[in-house]
């Protein structure tokens, strides 16, 4: 899996959110950290075409997000900070099945994939449960299940632990870390990026630091004056 950003600028609401970002991502586990308003969430949204560059280009396995957005989104799943924004169907199983509505699979194949994914995420006993009545951690795992059911090659998660307490945040992060897919994780929880292959520190619209966690996290703390 290869994602490349080539001199990417993003201007939103009259403000330069990202400026001249050039990088290549091939590692399995990449974390993105930075202060609020730094541009890190915009960077994440570029990776599956939720945001398009004002100039420059983003390529996912050679596919330009501007021209091949649908194909890119088949390869790149996105998990939002608030799972309620992502849950659209009444029950847990229905919500996962909804993500497969354009997959071309038969009803039997869809049902089998839903069961397998819910079992993998520890939600099998909640298949018929009202989705919006799950706990915060369970909702985030449901959102992840719906993304994974579509079998993406890359999962991008934008602060998926923001609304969770520390115990559930760690559990959700561990699920992401154990995925077979490539993962790009945007997070404020610096202790949760240990073990990642690479950390990008975004500051004022630019990638200020790009290194292993042991180097990038202390550099970010210094940047923030901590």
CATH topology: Rossmann fold
The assigned CATH architecture is 3-Layer(aba) Sandwich
Portion of residues in beta strands equals 25-35%
How many discrete domains? 1
Mean of the pLDDT scores?
94
Contiguous runs where pLDDT drops below 50 for at least 5 residues: none
Q: What is the overall silhouette?
A: globular
Total helical elements: 7
N/C terminus separation: 35 Å
The CATH homology group name: P-loop containing nucleotide triphosphate hydrolases
The chain-level structural class is alpha/beta
Strand order of the largest sheet: 6-7-8-3-9-10
- Care to count the β-strands? 10
The CATH class is identified as Alpha Beta
Element order: H for helix, E for strand: EEEHEEHEHHHEHEEEH
Helix content: 25-40%
The quaternary state of the protein chains shown equals: single chain
Largest sheet: 6 strands, mixed
Rg measurement, Å: 17 Å
What features would you highlight for this structure?
single chain; 226 residues; alpha/beta; Rossmann fold; six-stranded mixed sheet; 10 strands
Describe this structure in words.
There is one protein chain. By secondary structure, the chain is α/β, with parallel strands linked by helices. The protein has one domain (3-223): P-loop containing nucleotide triphosphate hydrolases (Rossmann fold), CATH 3.40.50.300. It is 32% helix and 27% strand. The chain has 7 helices and 10 strands. The protein has helices at residues 40-46, 69-75, 92-98, 107-120, 136-149, 166-177, 213-223; strands at residues 3-12, 15-25, 29-33, 55-60, 63-64, 76-79, 154-158, 182-186, 198-203, 206-211. Strands 6-7-8-3-9-10 form a 6-stranded mixed β-sheet, sandwiched between helices. A 4-stranded antiparallel β-sheet has the order 2-1-4-5, with helices on one face. The longest helix is centred in the middle third of the chain and has 14 residues, at 107-120. It is globular and about 50 Å long. 42% of the residues are buried. The mean pLDDT is 94.
């Amino acid at each position: 899996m290869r994602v490349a950003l080539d001199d990417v600028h993003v201007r939103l609401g009259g403000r330069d959110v990202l400026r001249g970002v050039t990088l290549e991502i091939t590692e399995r586990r990449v974390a993105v950290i930075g202060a609020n308003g730094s541009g890190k969430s915009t960077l994440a949204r570029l990776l599956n075409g939720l945001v398009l560059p004002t100039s420059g280009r983003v390529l996912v396995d050679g596919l330009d997000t501007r021209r091949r957005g649908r194909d890119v989104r088949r390869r790149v799943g996105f998990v939002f900070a608030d799972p309620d924004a992502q849950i659209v169907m009444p029950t847990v199983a229905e919500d996962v099945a909804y993500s497969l509505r354009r997959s071309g699979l038969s009803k039997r194949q869809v049902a089998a994939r839903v069961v397998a994914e819910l079992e993998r995420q520890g939600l099998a006993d909640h298949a018929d449960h009202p989705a919006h009545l799950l706990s915060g951690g369970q909702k985030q795992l449901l959102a992840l299940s719906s993304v994974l059911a579509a079998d993406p090659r890359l999962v991008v998660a934008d602060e998926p632990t923001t609304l969770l307490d520390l115990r559930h945040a760690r559990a959700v992060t561990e699920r992401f870390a154990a995925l077979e897919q490539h993962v790009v994780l945007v997070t404020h929880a610096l202790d949760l990026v240990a073990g990642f292959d690479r950390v990008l520190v975004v500051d004022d619209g630019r990638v200020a630091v790009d290194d292993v966690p042991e180097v990038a996290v202390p550099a970010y703390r210094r940047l923030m004056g901590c």
